[in-house]
Amino acid sequence: MPAIHFILADGTRRSLDAQEGWTVMEVAREAGVPGILAECGGGALCATCHVHLEPEWLPIAGGATETEDMLLELAPGRDGASRLSCQIVLTPALDGLTLRVPEEQAS
Ligand code: FES
Asked: The pTM is what?
C-alpha cells in the first residue's frame, strides 16, 4: 500500500495510505485534501487537480504527457514538475510520493 505525502498550500503535510491502482487525485478526493478540486472527475479536462511533484520524484513518476501538457497551459503556477494528479496511477514504485498542492488552488 503506497503512502503519499501532500504538502498543502499553507505548508502543512498530509500523509495518506493509498490503494495501488488508484490515481493520486482519487486518493486526495476521497480524503478531502484541500485544493484538489478535480472538477472533471479524472477525465483530463479541467486541470483543477494540478500538483507539483517534489523534484526527487520527477524521474520516478515521470513528467506530464502531451495531453497533460496542453491542459496544464491553463493551470496557474504551472512549472516543469507540474502534473495532473488524475493521471498519476499509484504503483509500489511510488511509495513515498511527495507532491505540493499549488497555492493558486488553495482558495
Ligand atoms: S480531474 Fe480534471 S484534469 Fe484531473
From this structure: 0.95
